[in-house]
Design a protein that fits this description.
3% strand; mainly alpha; Hypothetical Protein Ta1238, Chain: A; 6 helices; 201 residues; 2 strands; 57% helix; two-stranded antiparallel ribbon; elongated
């Protein structure tokens, strides 16, 4: 009996192949099928979203077990960021957009509700603060800065002068990233508050 190749075994097991070698020439594939250079502005934005997701994973490590509600919110945000990456990796008007989960107004509203819940217990803020204190707080503030960078990249994608209209799939992505950075700022303060650490002015 002939021995099966690793590719055949992976196919039978339903595995996602980690390496293909197709990117050895400096290009990568978008979800909608096109290949672009790895330094393409779209890939650059996806890289920032990926970095943000990893920062949120580190934030979850430092959150105490008592913060189950916050941990669940962060996990849901991480899942949403995977959807954001898929939307960025798909050209406007592509038929593949119908296969992707969209970012909606409801997801933006959930971030707002989370902020309102947290902010109720925090002392009033009337000046800028330094990112400092508990590790969870610092990671929240770091994630916020990565989120702002990702937002700037997505804004660049949404203002496609040659086309003259923003991609419809990015409408709520922009609002989501904008609100997420605010959520992470409030969360950073909340993490310090839970640890009895005051804002650092």
């Amino acid at each position: 009996m002939a021995r099966k190749s690793k590719k055949e075994n992976d196919t039978e097991r339903g595995c996602m192949k980690i390496f293909t070698g197709k990117g050895d020439n400096g290009t990568t594939g978008l979800f909608s099928g096109e290949r672009v250079p790895k330094n393409h502005e779209r890939i650059d934005a996806i890289g920032d979203i990926d970095e943000l997701n990893s920062a949120l994973g580190l934030l979850r490590v430092y959150l105490s077990e008592e913060n189950e509600e916050i941990c669940t919110e962060i996990r849901n945000i991480q899942a949403n960021l995977l959807y954001v990456g898929g939307l960025i990796a798909t050209w406007r008007d592509s038929p593949y957009l119908k296969q992707l989960k969209q970012i909606s107004e409801q997801q933006v509203e959930r971030l707002e509700a989370g902020m309102d819940r947290i902010d109720k217990v925090l002392p009033a803020l009337n000046r800028f603060i330094l990112p400092n204190g508990h590790p969870a707080a610092v990671w929240a503030q770091f994630a916020r800065t990565v989120c702002r960078r990702a937002e700037r990249k997505v804004v660049g994608l949404s203002v496609e002068v040659k086309v003259g209209r923003p991609p419809i799939q990015l409408r709520w992505v922009l609002a989501y990233l904008n609100r997420l950075s605010d959520y992470l700022f409030v969360l950073g303060r909340y993490c310090n508050f839970l640890s009895g650490i005051p804002d650092d002015f």
